[in-house]
Amino acid sequence: MSKSRYITGLRAVEQLLASESPEIRRIYAEYQTANPRVEAIIKTARQEGIEIQAANRARLAQISGESRHQGVVAEVQRSTVMDEAGVLDKFGVRPDQ
Hints:
It is built from four helices and four strands; from the N terminus they run βαβαβαβα. The chain is α+β, with helices and mostly antiparallel strands. It starts with a strand and ends in a 7-residue tail after the last helix. The model has no long low-confidence stretch (mean pLDDT 85).
């Protein structure tokens, strides 16, 4: 059984980084992206000392098991895939807050 799970999508990864979770092992991000949100995630992760791995979209889909990753996937400790709703639920954040 894997000791990692993968969190996909811009908002989910942004929320995870904002929580300063010690569970984050590395961030996989689409290389040569023009998306400023992905670039901001990369910058924040580097400032936090989190490893960044460049990957193409196909590799991100392979890692996460989802094609709707929005160019970024966070690898965290544990063993299940978690989407944005799962992250928001785990950290007690509601979209209306």
